[in-house]
Design brief:
Blueprint (H helix, E strand, L loop, with lengths): L2 H37 L4 H33 L6 H30 L5 H40 L2
Amino acid sequence: MNQRTLSNWLKGIVIGLGICGIFLFAVLLPYLVHGEIEASPELSRTFITWMITIWVLGIACYAVLVFCWKIAANIGRDNSFCDENAHLLKLISVMAVIDCVILFVANVVYLFLNISHPGIFIASMFVIFIGIAIAVTTAALSHLVLKAALLQKQSDLTI
């Protein structure tokens, strides 16, 4: 598989994730939460709070998709190991950590305000674990891409 094909596959995955995210954030979650509200009317006061929280977290996810698109474009230009890709991977790592912190703090606050349920808190811990795993992985990739970029610069200067 050449660089161009790999880049196109990555861009296709980014588009697919964007479409899945729109479906998840705009259609499925409001429908599920609204269904729960109809079953338990006492949850109606939590609907707007949780939807705002989820949409704020979704903004960071779409920012990450933009960064992934830029990385895929660099790969397509045969510039896989560059400082820009290392920087973008570092930004993805930071965004994942920020998203995890926001989700954790929101869950704790909502739990104390009786807007959430302990089961939701426990389930969100799995989501936070996945987010931290993504953050660590992208930080490691950022470090490796930066080292590879430095080695590539050195080899380009060698006759």
